[in-house]
Amino acid sequence: MPSPAAHFRKDLCRRLACLALLSFSPMLWAQTPAPAATVPTPQTLEQADAQRERVKQMRSEAEQRYTTEQTACYKKFLVSSCLDDAKKRYTRTMIEARKLDIPAREFQRDAKRADVEAKEAQRAADLPRRESEQKEQAENYRATEATRAAARDKKRADKAVKAAEGRRKREAEQVKRQARQEKRAKKDAERAAKKAREAAKAEAKAAAEADVSRRSGPAQ
Predict the structure, then answer these.
(1) How many CB atoms neighbour CB 135 within 10 A?
(2) Segments in the chain forming alpha helices (H)
(3) How many CA atoms lie within 13 A of 176 on its CB side?
(4) In the prediction, which pLDDT does 12 show?
(5) At what angle do helices 45-73 and 79-219 cross, to 10 degrees?
């Protein structure tokens, strides 16, 4: 009959075996291949953006979950096995995220390339119109500048004409003033000459009268 110590060791081994089996069970389940899921292919840019946002969320959640599970594993008896399982779950999630990200990223890239090509095609199609518009703008600019230059030339010519007219008016006024001055001087000279003649005549008359009086005086 086995001793109590042997019975205890046998029971302990049986318990440890059961514990090991329970610890490895999640790893066995994780290794069981899951049915392949169909990776959605975006049909619009909005769907691609939403899918990439979902990928970003999956990766963030996987990082947080992996950190939490690592912390929990260090409290368990079989640390390495627990860490391996957590790592496998993390890797599986990251692979799924990558599978989702690839078609969304490719759709965004293709959409961007198509947008660039469409813009280039539109630019090439608009080139004749832009060249025509630029030519018309250049012609309008030259015409406007020519009109402005003609207006400036006319303004300068009008200014020169006005200046010449001003000079002629000033010269005419000068001639008129000089004529008036000469006329006044002539009248002044005539008046002075007349006064001189009148004074001389009066003086001669007075002298004659005096002479007559002188002569008549002794005879009486």
Answers:
(1) 10
(2) 4-31, 45-73, 79-219
(3) 6
(4) 43
(5) 130
Q: Phi-psi category of 168—alpha, beta or left, where left has phi over 0 and alpha has psi -120 to 50?
A: alpha
Alpha-carbon dihedral angle through residues 216, 217, 219, 220, given to the nearest 10 degrees: 110
The structure tokens listed for 65 are 């979950």
Question: Do 91 and 29 contact (CB within 8 A), yes or no?
Answer: no
- Give me the count of residues in the chain: 220
Asked whether 86 and 69 are in contact (CB, 8 A), the reply is yes
Say what angle helices 4-31 and 79-219 make with each other, to 10 degrees: 40
The residue among 40, 47, 56 whose CA lies nearest residue 99 is 40
Residue with tokens 């001003």: 166
Residue type, 26: P
Block mean pLDDT (10 aa), the chain, length 220: 44 44 38 56 93 95 95 90 95 96 94 93 91 90 93 92 90 89 88 88 84 70
Cα separation, 20 vs 183, whole angstroms: 147
pTM across the whole model: 0.45
Residue 62 · residue 96 · CB < 8 Å: no
Tokens 């081994």 correspond to: 13
The whole-number pLDDT of residue 3 equals 46
Q: What is the pLDDT of residue 214?
A: 80
Q: What is the structure's pLDDT at 147?
A: 93
